Amino acid sequence: MYEFSVPMALTDFIPVALFAVAAVLMQRDLYNKMPKYAYACFAAGCVNAFLAGFLKALWKLLYALGVCDFQVLNTVFLPVQSIGLLLTGFGLILMLCGRKKAMLAAAPPVFAGTFVFIAMMVLGLGAMCACLSVLAARMKKKGLITVFALTFLCYMAMGYLASREGNSAAMNWIEQRINTLGQTLLLFGVATLHKAGLRELGTV
Question: CA of 190: how far to CAs of 14, 45, 88, 145, 173, in Å?
Fold first, then answer.
């Protein structure tokens, strides 16, 4: 049994929406700076990460409304989001490194647990926040490095809390607040870069 209320479930859509806005801003600003293969990787990662969060929030809402317990929407969250964040970070790395060719790695089928997905998520998030920090430094917005570092820490804290056993309402509210804070910081950083003229910046 999960202690999901309708207000709690609806609140879960807030960080999803914040991430969606940040992702759209990044895609618009970086489109003309990324090789097509890097942009395809980055955009696909953003879509995956958004869908993972949206589907999990939808699962909570359906559960809270008493419609059904559509567990598959919750089950796909970790693999879909981890792959999405890894692709997002990988696309940004390709942009900054300017590599013409790159190899995409897939998780070996011998792993049945969640370790691989968690590692992919950490690597993807770390790469994304690090690359955004590099862009901030190049645009002389070094204060945003702290913002993106805090964004990463919020993601890690939320992931740690989500991995712990227990589905109490209090724990879910804490997770949601940390998630919302992390997405707010991400959007603030991305919006600041956008306002500072990231789209008009020369090739990175």
Answer: 17, 16, 14, 11, 26
